[in-house]
UniProtKB/TrEMBL annotation:
Highest taxon of the lineage: Eukaryota
Domain Angiopoietin-1/2/4: 2-63
Keyword Zinc-finger: no
Protein name: Angiopoietin-1/2/4 domain-containing protein
InterPro entries: ANG-1/2/4, Fibrinogen-like_C
Family matches, as Pfam families: ANG-1
SUPFAM superfamilies: Fibrinogen C-terminal domain-like (SSF56496)
Species assigned in the record: Naja naja (Indian cobra)
Residues passing through the membrane, by range: 112-130
Length: 131
């Protein structure tokens, strides 16, 4: 009888330890997945950093050579491209849209930091209003 009770206690402890090991295994698998995602994100950030560094080096080179483009010479693909390029002055910008032979002029109105308007005209599509 005493041996049977000890055997039951040992079996209970074994079951408890197996549950703990299973829980730890699941935790480790979750951590491995998180590590893989973080590693992938780090690689992407490194690529973006290299692209940004290359862009900065190109800009420094252009400026040192006196080849700074005027607003009219910049190549924008869409209205968001204008905003993301850092321009914040209202005016007329030129869009060079992929698969469209003719450039489109757009009127961009910047007002405060978060409001701006961009539109093409006459059947040309385009158009973005952010408020």
């Amino acid at each position: 009888m005493k041996h049977l009770k000890e055997l039951e206690d040992i079996q209970t402890k074994k079951d408890h330890l197996q549950k703990l090991v299973s829980h730890q295994r699941n935790s480790i698998e979750g951590l491995e997945k998180s590590l893989n995602v973080a590693s992938s994100n780090t690689s992407l950030l490194q690529q973006q950093q290299l692209q940004l560094l290359e862009s900065v080096q190109n800009l420094v080179s252009l400026i040192s050579q006196g080849k700074v483009l005027k607003k009219e010479e910049w190549l924008f693909q869409d209205c968001m491209d204008i905003l993301q390029s850092g321009f914040n002055l209202s005016g007329v910008y030129t869009l060079h849209i992929n698969n469209v032979t003719e450039s489109k002029k757009v009127i961009v109105g910047f007002k405060f930091f978060y409001y701006w308007f961009c539109g093409c005209g006459l059947f040309g599509g385009c158009g973005l209003v952010v408020m």
